[in-house]
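User: I've been trying to design a sequence by hand for this structure and keep getting stuck. Would you show me what you'd pick, starting by listing the structure so we're on the same page?

Assistant: Good idea, let's start from the same input. This is the structure you sent:
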């Protein structure tokens, strides 16, 4: 083969080789795509309103569950605060003072009635 023909042939061979490399890379990218079905959406989970009682009683929704858990946590925190006072100091009249948050100065406070 003449040098000019050989250079043209080498150039064509290199171009075809680059095309095959690009095709191989494309196949590797396609292999990374998932082929199976997507995971199903998770079912809603409900919690029984009461652990005892009617079997056909309605269950709590997510918001109701969160509200009841928050209420239970607050109740436990109040019991814990009452059981272990932070700053229990005995005064002359024998009263125990439990830790209460300080009141802001200069701000009028309103009396709240429990509902």
């Amino acid at each position: 083969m003449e040098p000019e023909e050989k250079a043209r042939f080498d150039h064509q061979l290199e171009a075809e080789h680059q095309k095959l490399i690009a095709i191989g890379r494309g196949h590797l990218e396609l292999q990374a795509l998932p082929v199976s079905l997507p995971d199903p959406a998770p079912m809603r989970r409900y919690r029984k309103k009461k652990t005892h009682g009617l079997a056909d009683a309605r269950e709590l929704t997510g918001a109701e569950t969160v509200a009841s858990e928050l209420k239970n946590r607050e109740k436990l925190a109040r019991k814990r605060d009452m059981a272990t006072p932070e700053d229990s100091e005995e005064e002359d009249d024998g009263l125990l003072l439990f830790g209460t948050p300080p009141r802001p100065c200069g701000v009028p406070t309103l009396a709240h009635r429990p509902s």
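That's my pick for every position. To get oriented when you compare it with your attempt: Strands lie at 47-48, 59-60. The helical segments are 3-31, 62-83.
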